[in-house]
Amino acid sequence: MDRAALLGLSRLCALWAALLALFPCGAQGNWMWLGIASFGVPEKLGCANLPLNSRQKELCKRKPYLLPSIGEGARLGIQECRSQFRHERWNCLVTATAQQGTSPLFGYELSSGTKETAFIYAVMAAGLVHSVTRSCSAGNMTECSCDTTLQNGGSASEGWHWGGCSDDVQYGMWFSRKFLDFPIRNTTGKESKVLLAMNLHNNEAGRQAVAKLMSVDCRCHGVSGSCAVKTCWKTMSSFEKIGHLLKDKYENSVQISDKIKRKMRRREKDQRKIPIRKDDLLYLNKSPNYCVEDKKLGIPGTQGRECNRTSEGADGCNLLCCGRGYNTHVVRHVERCECKFIWCCYVRCRRCESMTDVHTCK
Ligand SMILES: *[C@@H]1O[C@H](CO)[C@@H](O)[C@H](O)[C@H]1NC(C)=O
Ligand SMILES: *[C@@H]1O[C@H](CO)[C@@H](O)[C@H](O)[C@H]1NC(C)=O
Ligand SMILES: *[C@@H]1O[C@H](CO)[C@@H](O)[C@H](O)[C@H]1NC(C)=O
């Protein structure tokens, strides 16, 4: 396996381990992720050797065939987080030390109780739902498959019926809950208890996003495409769409009070009457501005990041560089151009050079 692939896999392991490190799980607490640098293919190592807590090991042993989906779920989540935040000051970057396996993935953001924490938990939990459900629909699992509750349903008068394979998102959600959600046991300190409750809520918000974006696909039958009869099935949205929805939730996330009574409450006193919905993302603490490097927190800052001189958005040099200004470099691009089809059968192109300005934050 090449180095990049290995790095990727060790990151996946690091991720779940890092997630777990947040939960007080008795003796297997915060240090569990430390050994992850050497992890290879998780399914080859087996459940016993992965940085899982005892509950998860038990689950893993009973369902070892789910290990590839767990890895795939983590990959989906991380990739979508990076993609959604690629233009922002916080760009969901894995810290350099996490890549070397010596610190948890995401580092500070995983336990800071900020909006970023909220997004990470939601997108990771959603990723797990998505990958497990896909695997069920692909017929890779004995205990789950397509959603069979829809069989024989539909509406003859409207000319359609359920058929094909509907994604059984309920099983994916069940597994994601089982794997990621830990009961809030008596933990030390108020802060950690609220943080746990917050993380659990955001896990569920991620799952709800997958469920909410289920859609219906249909195929027409009938004489020459007349669509007299349709077969329809339920399908999950692409994970990109789910990521978009979660990004939206992130931007409208709700700050909660650090004092937990019977349940979590909004921080803003005059808004407490507005109920917290289960698909809202919740956060506890204000985010740092992510402008300047903070080695202690593992925040890289935006120095050296590429910015867009003409954009008014988050990727614009003004916002991204936090008003520090930017440097401009000229970068030479070489590409194939003026391609012509030659009979028969190849394409001949010229090599074209172009110069573009690249701006990076000071
Ligand atoms: C199903 O299993 C096959 C063979 O192990 C694998 O190649 C494929 O990626 C799996 N599909 C999903 C969606 O997990
Ligand atoms: C912790 O939980 C256990 C079992 O639920 C309970 O018996 C015990 O009193 C709790 N301890 C504290 C300090 O809340
Ligand atoms: C920069 O921003 C402008 C305005 O939003 C956009 O049209 C352009 O495509 C962006 N350029 C790059 C290189 O992303």
From TrEMBL:
Q: Which InterPro entries match?
A: Wnt, Wnt16, Wnt_C, Wnt_CS
Q: Which residues form the signal peptide?
A: 1-29
The UniProt family comment states:
Belongs to the Wnt family.
Which SMART domains does this one have?
A: WNT1
One Gene Ontology cellular component annotation?
cytoplasm
Which CDD domains does the protein's record reference? Wnt_Wnt16
Q: Name one GO molecular function term.
A: cytokine activity
Q: Which GO terms describe its biological process?
A: bone remodeling; canonical Wnt signaling pathway; cardiac epithelial to mesenchymal transition; cell fate commitment; keratinocyte differentiation; keratinocyte proliferation; negative regulation of apoptotic signaling pathway; neuron differentiation
Asked if the keyword Ion transport belongs to this entry, the reply reads: no
Keywords assigned? Developmental protein, Disulfide bond, Extracellular matrix, Glycoprotein, Lipoprotein, Secreted, Signal, Wnt signaling pathway
Name of the protein described by the UniProt record: Protein Wnt
Q: Which domain of life is it from?
A: Eukaryota
One family from Pfam that matches here is: wnt
Predominantly, its location class is: secreted
Gene name of this polypeptide: WNT16
Q: Function, please?
A: Ligand for members of the frizzled family of seven transmembrane receptors.
